Amino acid sequence: NGEFVKITIVVPRGKIFLQGFLGEYPYVTLCEVSRSRPREVVRLLLRVRVAQSPVVAVIHPTPGHIPFFVKFFAWALTRGKGSMLVGFQDAGLLCQKLYTKCLIYNTQQNYSETVRDIVRAAGVISDIGAPRLLCVAKLGVLEYVVFHPGASAQKRTFSLEAATSCISFMLKNPDIKVVLSGGSDERDCIEKILKQVEKNIRKRVVVALGLPAEEISTLLLGAKLFVGTDTGITHLTCFLGVKTLVAAHHGTANWLPFYAPNATVLYRLEEDAEAHEGKEYLGVHRQGRLKPFADVPTSAILETIAKALLI
Question: How far apart are CA 60 and CA 86, in angstroms?
Answer without folding.
Answer: 9
